[in-house]
Every structure is written in C-alpha cells, then in structure tokens.
Amino acid sequence: MKREKRTRKRTKVKTPGGKTVWHFKKRRVSHTLCGRCGAKLNRARLNPTQLRKISKVKRRPERPFPELCSKCMRKVLKSRVRV
Ligand SMILES: [Zn+2]
Predict the structure, then answer these.
(1) How far is ligand 1, taken at its centre, from the CA of residue 34, in Å?
(2) pLDDT band at 1, cuts 50/70/90?
(3) How many domains, in total, are found in the chain?
(4) Is the pTM of this model over 0.85?
C-alpha cells in the first residue's frame, strides 16, 4: 500500500465500542502579520472556507492599507501626503 502524505497531526482515540481509531487534528491558522513591521494584526484567524462565509467588512478593517497595522498605516499615510 502506498504511504499517504501526512500533513495533520494524529491521535489514537478509543471509541465507546472498543475500537481504536485515528483522529486527525485540525491545523490552526497562523496570525495575519503587518506587511511593514511584522506585528500580529487583531484579525479573525479563519481558514479560507470560513472566511468565505463571513462578510467582507468582518474580514479586514475598513480603512486605507488594511494589510498594515494601524501604526504603520499612519506613517505611510503621512509620508504620502507630505510629498
Ligand atoms: Zn506595522
């Protein structure tokens, strides 16, 4: 039998019927990081399937440069205005 690629952690669990079965752990989604300083953003940690189910407003902040943290956003905004 061809060996399957293991990407998820497994644990053996004994069922009430006495059988031992493998349970596969779900992988935790990593934090979204600021594109400039790398700080963790306060954002929902959801996988792509769950992200599709929530509204766009809840996915990211409704301000300019949503990929940056608020501190970096202010710095970038000021630097663009002051040219
Ligand atoms: Zn930042």
Answers:
(1) 5
(2) low
(3) 1
(4) no
Q: How far is CA 55 from CA 43, 44, 63, in A?
A: 13, 12, 16
Question: For residue 35, how many other CB atoms are within 10 A of its CB?
Answer: 14
| Residue 4 lies inside a defined structural domain of this protein | no
pLDDT of residue 19 exceeding 90: yes
Q: Report the SS3 class of residue 56.
A: helix
Instruction: For residue 3, tell me if it sits in a domain.
Output: no
Sequence-ordered strand ranges (E) for 1-83:
10-14, 20-24
Residue 63 CA, ligand 1 centroid: distance in Å: 14
> Rounded CA gap, 66 and 59, in Å?
10
Q: Which structural domain, as residue segments, surrounds residue 37?
A: 10-81
- Asked if the structure places residue 25 within a domain, the reply is yes
